[in-house]
Specification:
Pantoate_ligase_C, 11 helices, Rossmann fold, 2 domains, alpha/beta, Pantoate--beta-alanine Ligase, Chain: A,domain 2, 4-stranded antiparallel beta sheet, 19% strand
Length: 340
């Protein structure tokens, strides 16, 4: 990283005295490694007046996470934020009893090395006791009322209340200016955006901005995910059926939109995707859905053709399990070419 412009900037980052609002040099860390913070008090002390770009994660980082950091870095370079923070916390509140909390991959040391190479200023890596000192469940709850009316929420009815809870806590601890989320977790993005709007979340005189970043994929199309590490070699090869099936659906929708093939209903489009997924018997399909940008499902009989005005993306999403690893993915259609 660049050398600090002055001693005050170094002191600011290392918490030697309170940061000054709008100090553009807050990100000028004297070392190449991010500061590791493990308590809420440490975060408050070191970011008290900084404009922070914040990337919440559960660790086991991959290029998709790093794309979020790079989006934050562009904002820092443009002077929109002063520092970049990343949280690494596997949140027990969003896992059901029969899910993979104990198997979720963790690699803190390797994660920090990746973040150091990307110029991250601090990492907040709290324990579950630090985040939930009185244990779970909390007396105060956040409930996402429409979560189970949407595909991923219907499949995991407990999940989005837990996501909303931990994100709200993290936002209040870090008090960021901008937060960054990946589009692979489409309902999570919609949930966070809705929560920020509903609760008027903001700090230091401005509302919190939610920035979403496109999905990063492997060379064969599989969406990058921390859970991919838990796939066996064979399951990893089988998992590629998910992006292949979504691409088949997008190709069919694009052809209908261009008038190259007859119009297609939502139910027919979902059936096209399910037919492609059926080529891999190792996959247990949880859902296939065609929704609007807020993840609200279209009626099965709705016709998708050249007469539809696509002011917002159509999102085609899928979830399924191969072995004991649950995978999700989605692709977006904006009225032109297929995209992810």
């Amino acid at each position: 990283m660049e050398a600090p412009a002055n001693a005050a900037a170094v002191a600011c980052v290392h918490g030697l005295h309170p940061c000054v609002a709008n100090n553009k040099n807050i990100a000028a860390n004297a070392s190449s490694r991010p500061i590791i913070l493990t308590t809420k008090a440490e975060v408050h002390a070191r970011t008290a007046a900084a404009r922070v770009g914040f990337v919440p994660t559960m660790g086991a980082l991959h290029e998709g996470h790093l794309d979020l950091v790079r989006a934050a870095r562009r904002d820092r370079d443009q002077g929109r934020i002063d520092a970049i923070g990343v949280s690494i916390f596997v949140n027990p509140a969003q896992f059901a009893a029969n899910e993979d909390l104990d198997r979720y991959p963790q690699s803190l040391d390797a994660d920090v090395e990746l973040l150091a190479a990307e110029g991250v200023d601090f990492v907040f890596a709290p324990s579950a006791r630090e985040m939930y000192p009185h244990g779970l469940p909390l007396n105060t709850k956040l409930h996402i009322s429409d979560a189970t009316t949407k595909p991923e929420g219907a499949s995991r009815p407990h999940f989005f209340d837990g996501v909303a809870l931990v994100c709200n806590k993290l936002f209040n601890i870090v008090q960021p200016t901008i937060v960054y989320f990946g589009e692979k977790d489409a309902q999570q993005c919609a949930t966070i955006q809705g929560m920020v709007e509903d609760l008027d979340i903001g700090y230091r005189g401005q509302f919190l901005e939610v920035c979403t970043v496109p999905t990063r994929r492997e060379a064969d199309g599989l969406a990058m995910s921390s859970r991919n590490r838990n796939l066996t070699t064979k399951a990893r090869q089988q998992a590629v059926v998910i992006p292949q099936a979504l691409t088949a659906g997008l190709t069919r929708l694009t052809a209908a939109h261009r008038g190259e093939l007859p119009p297609i209903t939502v139910a027919e489009l979902e059936a096209t995707i399910l037919q492609s997924l059926a080529h891999e018997p190792a996959l247990t399909v949880h859902y296939v859905a065609v929704t609007d940008a807020r993840l609200r499902p279209f009626p099965p009989t709705a016709i998708l053709d050249t007469n539809v005005a696509y002011s917002d993306p159509i999102i085609i999403s899928c979830a399924g399990t191969i072995g004991n690893v649950r995978l999700i993915d989605n692709m977006r259609f904006t009225g032109g070419h297929p995209g992810a």
